[in-house]
Amino acid sequence: MSFPAPAKFNLVVAATNSEGDFDFLDVPGPATLDIPGAVSAGAYWKVSDGHSLSNFGEVPSNAGVAGFNGSALSVVCFPARSAGKLNADDAGADFRDSDGDHNDDPSMHATDTIDYEIILSGKVDMELPGGKVRTLQPGDLLVMGGVPHAWKNHYDEDCVYVAVTIGFNK
Fold it and tell me: How big, in percent rounded to 5, are the helix, strand and coil portions of the chain?
């Protein structure tokens, strides 16, 4: 199955419009992140400062994970053979170093989020400190709770996945 590029998914939003009617809302395209050869992402929705029907979110102005008491929905692609090409510091201000020195791996990072991720296509290795690795493939679901990690695509196919992040307070 072929999927569109991360910034080309179609976001459909059903909510109450400005006249108080239930409707489909027209929203702008996603915020994007593109580090050629390393990662691309489309950030489609973000909620800040708590969830409610009056504050259920909007298309974010920049790509990134959820902040405290918020959530975010993104589609991410790690291109084929991109392992070792991502420096987490280049991916945005929402990322923090896992221990200050990246465990000698500039792609190692952690976020103050609980992440729910669904692999749609391709394969990617999820690496934790100490060299612990799991290969994720289509149909795999990943739940991650603020742990330092690095994404490594050593394979010949792009890996596309959906990420929902929920911000927490440490």
Answer: 10, 45, 50
CB 103 within 8 A of CB 55: no
C-alpha torsion angle, residues 27, 29, 33, 38 (rounded to 10): 130
Q: In 10 A of CB 12, how many CB atoms?
A: 7
Residue 100 within a domain: yes
Using CA atoms, how far apart are residues 84 and 141, in angstroms rounded to an integer? Answer: 23
Question: What CATH number is attached to the domain comprising 116?
Answer: 2.60.120.10
Cα–Cα distance between 33 and 17 in angstroms, integer? 29
**Exposed / middle / buried, residue 144 (Cβ in 10 Å: 0-12, 13-18, 19+):** middle
CA–CA separation, 33 and 41 (whole Å):
5
Domain membership flag for residue 92: yes
114-135 pLDDT tens trace: 999 999 999 999 999 999 999 9
pTM of the entire structure?
Answer: 0.90
- Residue length of the chain: 170
Kind plus residue range of the DSSP H or E element containing 20: none
